[in-house]
Specification:
With 152 residues, this protein is α+β, with helices and mostly antiparallel strands. The chain is 34% helix and 24% strand.
Length: 152
């Protein structure tokens, strides 16, 4: 039994030339630079969307806490941020984000900077609008059920 041997021709065409390798590396580096610049341009938008989702989650957590503890809990708006019902963690809002509470049922002027959740799950309701430059999003809080809806 003889073993089959693979014979490769050895000569000037076996492998890649230095010029071919340099061209491939140049193309790869250009692609990486363009991809990183595109990613860095979209980073503020991703941070804003993330902050909006975190605020909606904090509203839901405040409602949940009011239901579990059977007493009123509130999320208070502050310039440049907010304080959740438990006050556990600081808000994760990008600098320059403006939060505004609008469309409060009954025009509750008693606390225009606060969303309250009651022990039965209901709330003062309203619509929170977030703006950062040209970006904007809204969070709607149903007054009857206290449910939080993210409008993206």
């Amino acid at each position: 039994m003889t073993k089959a041997r693979c014979h490769r021709p050895i000569g000037p065409r076996s492998g890649f030339s230095l010029i071919e390798l340099m061209v491939v590396l140049s193309i790869m580096s250009l692609l990486m630079v363009s991809a990183s610049s595109a990613l860095s341009a979209s980073l503020p938008a991703m941070r804003f969307r993330s902050a909006t989702r975190i605020l909606a989650d904090d509203l839901r957590a405040t409602r949940r806490a009011a239901l579990l503890q059977r007493h009123e809990m509130a999320l208070s708006l502050r310039p440049g941020g907010y304080i959740s019902g438990d006050g556990d963690r600081p808000p994760a809002l990008p600098a320059g984000t403006v939060i505004r509470l609008v469309d409060v049922p009954g025009g509750s002027a008693a606390a225009p900077d606060r969303v309250r959740f009651f022990a039965d799950g209901s709330s003062t309701g309203g619509r929170l609008e977030l703006r950062l430059g040209e970006r904007h999003s809204a969070i709607t809080i149903d007054w009857l059920t206290g449910r939080v809806h993210l409008d993206e």
